[in-house]
Amino acid sequence: MSINTLASLPRFFASGTCSRPPAGRQRRRDRLRSARRTLSRCSTRRPRTKPPSKRRPVRRAAVVSRGATAARLKNATTTMLRALHVAEKPSVAKKVAEHLGSLGGNQTSRSGPSPYNRLYDFETPGTPLTNNRRVRHTVTSVTGHLMASEFAEPYNKWHACAPRDLLREDVSSVEFRVADDKLPLKQQLEQEARQNDWLVLWLDCDREGEAIAYEVVDVCRKKKASLDLYRAVFSSVDRSSIVQAWRQLQRPDKRKADAVAARSELDLRAGAAFTRFQT
């Protein structure tokens, strides 16, 4: 070592240059300290957890809700009772639908094959007679007698037999058929009978009304034999009478209808026989 180098050593130590490490080494130390601080923070900090989702599981709940609703609707459809009401004329059918429809609401009206006999649809709560099953009603009407009596072939022809043969039941027979002008009404009753469980008869409460009621029964039961028959007994078409008649339904009386049929057949035989005898 030269004398000049030795002479400059006091100035080197006095300036503090020897205490500073090289730049590359300093950067490595800084990175090491930063890594240590990061590790220390990670070891002391609580582990981060995923925050709970604020979205509610509506998708699954909606599916369950729709399934439950569908099940309820299916049960309601299978347990709902369907009743077909038949009145003696359109004005009575309109009153029956108006008063019974007020018990449940949501009444609709539609036309069928018979343009003069409209159909009214609505629902009402159940009654003890229906075992509290909800009832789907369809109200329509006839216009008097559906059927007409006439002699069977060949006795319906004027000169087919002697007049006295028309008085003998063992020789000539009488048939009750739907009149030609009532065929659209017959079709309407058949269509509605297929879709109902009950047949409720709102005909006049006398023998003639009972006869018309069983004409309706004959038409409807040919399409659905399992129809359950009921008779509404009422004396006026005000609301209290109609609602009470619905809640206290009775059974129709076949004997009254048979009495009317016997009288009608006797009138036909006697009238036809004496008319032909006189001419």
Termini separation comes to: 174 Å
**Anisotropy-based shape:** rod-shaped
Q: Biggest sheet, strands in spatial order?
A: 2-3-4-1-7-8
Count of helix runs: 8
Order of helices and strands: HHHEHEEEEEHEHEHH
Report the helical percentage: 40-55%
> What's the main sheet like?
6 strands, mixed
Radius of gyration: 47 Å
Q: What's the count of strands?
A: 8
**What fraction strand?**
15-25%
Structural class: alpha/beta
Low-confidence parts = none
Mean pLDDT across residues:
82
Itemize the secondary structure elements and their pairings.
Blueprint: H1 3-14, H2 23-44, H3 58-79, E1 81-87, H4 90-101, E2 108-110, E3 119-124, E4 135-141, E5 147-151, E6 174-178, H5 183-194, E7 198-202, H6 207-221, E8 228-231, H7 239-247, H8 254-278
Parallel strand pairs: 1-4, 1-7, 7-8
Antiparallel strand pairs: 2-3, 3-4, 5-6
Describe this protein's structure.
The chain has 279 residues and is an alpha/beta fold. Helix content is 46%, strand content 15%. The chain has helices at residues 3-14, 23-44, 58-79, 90-101, 183-194, 207-221, 239-247, 254-278, and strands at 81-87, 108-110, 119-124, 135-141, 147-151, 174-178, 198-202, 228-231. A six-stranded mixed beta sheet has the order 2-3-4-1-7-8, sandwiched between helices. Strand 7, helix 6 and strand 8 form a beta-alpha-beta unit. Helix 4 packs across helix 7 (239-247) and helix 6 (207-221) crosses helix 8. The longest helix is centred in the last third of the chain and has 25 residues, at 254-278. The termini are far apart. The mean pLDDT is 82.
